[in-house]
Amino acid sequence: MSPQTPSLSATRNHTLSDAAAAHLDKERLLGRSEATLKTYRGALYRLVAWRAAQGVADSREVTSAHLEAYARTTLERVS
Question: pLDDT tens digit string along 61-70?
């Protein structure tokens, strides 16, 4: 990864919000359109809110099991 590209692990406080912001910054640097960034932002912040409600705010604590549970919850909501 280049020095100009933020990584999710490079966030200062390791909060999910910081990780989401770093990811959006990376996508912006990659030239994503504003419409794409808006879609990504909405999806990321819904995930951040869901994880915070589950008691996990540190991005280093998120596991694949968390992401799978979020995906199931999201699919149930739209079904």
Answer: 888 998 999 9
Taking the C-alpha atoms of residue 2 and residue 36, their distance in angstroms, rounded to an integer, is 22
58 bridge partner residues: 15
pLDDT in tens, 18-76: 888 999 999 999 999 999 999 999 999 898 899 889 888 788 888 899 899 999 988 88
Q: Token pair 């705010």 is at which residue?
A: 57
What whole-number distance in Å separates Cα of residue 34 and Cα of residue 40?
Answer: 10
State the DSSP string of 2-59: -TTS--GGG-SS-BHHHHHHHHHHHHHHTT--HHHHHHHHHHHHHHHHHHHHTT--BG
Question: What's the CA dihedral at 57, 59, 61, 62 to 10 degrees?
Answer: 100
pTM of the predicted structure, to 2 decimals:
0.68
